[in-house]
Design a protein that fits this description.
By secondary structure, the protein is of the alpha+beta class. Helices cover 38% and strands 10% of the residues. It contains 5 helices and 4 strands, in the order ααββαβαβα. A two-stranded antiparallel ribbon has the order 1-2. Strands 3-4 form a two-stranded parallel sheet. Strand 3, helix 4 and strand 4 form a beta-alpha-beta unit. Helix 2 crosses helix 4. The longest helix has 15 residues. The termini are far apart.
Length: 143
Amino acid sequence: MFQKWAAMLGVIIVSVNYRLAPEHRLPATYHDVIDALHWIGSMKTESDEDGRVEAEVEVDPWFDSHDDFSKDFVAGGSAGGNIVHHVGVWAASGGNVEIQEKGMILMYPYFGGEDWTPSESLKSPEFNLEQSDVMSRLTLPPG
């Protein structure tokens, strides 16, 4: 799917493999995505006043020459939409990340709460709320 989008839109897509629950509860997943954003930001070279290029890590020259770091978006679907939301809020609240994301794309993000909404209480056959509650308990930090 991402390869088709990249070709069709003429963009670079970085897909992040993040740790999963229940072995790794939140916020481990958020930290993995933040680490990926730091890595993307580290691929950008900057010149000092003498024109020397400075970089803290070995920069991938292809990535540096093809990414327009002023137009980076962060996107995710389902649980990934939730992750994008939380990481975006963190970054907008002063989180230290080397890229200035242009925006977020949340595709059918999953958000849950302690109480079921009226529409969730209808118990649709397409969505098992009891199973969703179990998954939330396994994902969220203890407490």
